[in-house]
Design goal:
The complex is a heterodimer of chains A (253) and B (249).
Chain A: H1 2-6, H2 33-54, H3 68-95, H4 98-130, H5 139-151, H6 154-159, H7 164-192, H8 209-250
Helix pairs in contact in A: 2-8, 3-4, 3-7, 3-8, 4-5, 4-7, 4-8, 5-7
Chain B: H1 2-7, H2 11-19, H3 26-44, H4 48-66, H5 73-94, H6 97-101, H7 104-110, H8 116-144, H9 154-179, H10 185-208, H11 222-246
Helix pairs in contact in B: 3-8, 4-5, 4-8, 5-8, 5-9, 5-10, 8-9, 9-10, 9-11, 10-11
The chains are: A mainly alpha (253), B mainly alpha (249).
């Protein structure tokens, strides 16, 4: 009982109908999740088709340049996710609503997973274009690594605190500090290195129209993928909390 | 209530605050907390000697690891910043341990005072530790490893160090307060702090490298000082905004 009041997130969005309503109805359905999933699959499919059949092959880098449509959207989405996690943490500290902490946790967790993808694809791209797996003179990649290293400590910090209320509060403080650190860090690293990389982020207007269109569609697809994965994880976590509190009420465990 | 407060050094603040009927001014509280911190440090000598010794040992390690008897320019700046940063980690790790273990937080929270005072007092404490550390480490560095003479560039270097110390103290205090309540606090403190301090290292090393080069070729770069000052300011504001949430129990 205490547990269910501690996890107000458990009962907000999951539509749990009473049992005995048939096989289908006993399955908790989350509004919007199916639509979101279908949209994501469609957008990913369209983006892939555009990348391979519509966007022109770049003259200097050839087929390798296609990784741009994966690497840059992943980076943008995960950085936005990190900042969004900080904003959700502010909402948590302001409202004391633990569901915001859960959202912040899921967003940062998913951004971290996307971050692994960013570093891998960035590394492959660097190897292909410059012949090295890692290039220190590329400020965006270096700043991304620093941000990634900082967020990699989010989970160790979180799970090293036992009291759940304090865990949520401290994790939120970390998320706010780290979220503010993201743009500052990019600024500092950008100042410190010479420009070498084709400035894709700053010069989207230099891209030919077909490439820009493909890039934007990829960005939307990756953002949708992020949103879908986040809502799946949120749903799973809420369901598990609900299950745990129900089984505690029923006296299992 | 008073039994908790009386055992702790911070408890003195709590009692004087009550006696004056009304909360004392923030400056008074900061002064009292700072005095208590420095008194505890003077009596136990836990942090400052450890940090200074660590810095000197690190310089010796650098001598053997780099296999050089003198360094200058970029390399000198790198050695100096790595030494100072890692020595600062030791101070950061110890900063809140006594408060967490011996009830200093409880005593402070019982007092009717502004909680930001804790942040400022601890940041000033860490700043004092860092200043003493640098009084030892910078001459030791000049003596043991630095090729070109330190004298002519000292004012510029001091300006860089002062600005970097403020940032180190603010971020260090915030991270120390975050890490002290965790199980693996000695591990998490440096892990959390190092990425956050990378911009300070970038600016500090970039600004001090020309000062430490052989012909004193470069002048002090105002750009990097501005970056350091901006970083200090932003993290000062962030720490001010979030620190209260670390003290609620």
């Amino acid at each position: 009982m205490n547990a269910s009041s501690r996890h107000p997130a458990g009962s907000t969005e999951i539509d749990h109908r009473p049992p005995g309503d048939g096989e289908r109805a006993s399955r908790p359905s989350v509004p919007g999740l199916r639509t979101l999933s279908i949209l994501t699959v469609a957008a990913m499919g369209i983006a892939l088709c555009l990348v391979f059949f519509y966007a022109p092959i770049e003259l200097e880098e050839g087929l390798l340049q296609k990784i741009f449509y994966l690497h840059v959207p992943l980076a943008i989405v995960s950085l936005c996710g990190f900042v969004l996690g900080g904003i959700m943490a502010i909402a948590h500290l302001r409202t004391r609503d633990r569901s915001w902490d859960l959202r912040s946790y899921v967003t940062i967790h998913m951004s971290l997973i996307f971050g692994v993808g960013v570093l891998l694809t960035g590394s492959i791209w660097a190897r292909g274009s410059w012949g090295h797996w890692w290039v220190w003179s590329e400020p965006t990649l270096v700043s991304y690594l620093i941000v990634f290293l900082l967020y990699a400590t989010y989970q160790p910090l979180r799970f090293a605190i036992e009291d759940p209320e304090r865990q949520a509060r401290y994790a939120s403080v970390f998320a706010i500090v780290a979220g503010a650190f993201v743009p500052l860090n990019f600024l500092a690293v950008r100042l410190s290195t010479s420009y070498l990389h084709p400035r894709v982020l700053g010069s989207a207007s230099n891209l030919p129209g077909s490439m820009r269109f493909t890039f934007l569609v990829s960005l939307v697809a990756i953002a949708l993928l992020f949103a879908t994965l986040c809502s799946y994880e949120l749903t799973a976590k809420r369901t598990r909390m609900l299950l745990r509190s129900r089984s505690r009420i029923l006296g299992y465990q | 209530m008073s039994s908790v407060a009386r055992d702790t050094p911070a408890g003195t603040d709590a009692r004087t605050g009550d006696a004056r009927s009304g909360s004392p001014g923030t400056l008074t509280v900061i002064g009292a907390l700072l005095r208590k911190e420095l008194l505890v440090e003077l009596r136990t000598l836990e942090s400052i000697p450890g940090m200074s010794l660590f810095a000197v040992s690190t310089l010796v390690v650098f001598h053997f690891a780099l296999q050089r008897s003198t360094v200058d320019g970029d390399l000198a700046a790198g050695v100096l910043w790595v030494t100072l940063l890692f020595a600062a980690m030791l101070g950061l790790n110890r900063l809140f341990v006594a408060d967490a273990e011996q009830g200093g937080f409880d005593g402070f929270l019982l007092a009717p005072v502004d909680r930001t005072a804790m942040l400022l007092a601890k940041a000033l404490t860490l700043l004092a530790y860092l200043l003493v550390l640098e009084i030892v480490a910078v001459p030791a560095f000049a003596l043991l490893l630095l090729g070109p003479p330190l004298g002519p560039t000292l004012p510029g270097l001091l300006a860089i160090l002062a600005l970097a110390d403020v940032g180190l103290a603010l971020i260090g205090t915030l991270i120390a307060a975050l890490a002290v309540q965790t199980r693996a606090r000695d591990l998490l403190g440096p892990l959390l702090a190092l990425p956050l301090l990378v911009p300070i290292v970038i600016a500090g090393a970039r600004a001090s490298a020309p000062l430490l080069s052989a012909g004193h070729a470069g002048a002090l770069s105002a750009r990097w000082l501005a970056v350091l000052a901006l970083y200090d300011l932003v993290f000062g504001l962030i720490a001010y905004a979030v620190f209260d949430f670390l003290l609620e129990d």
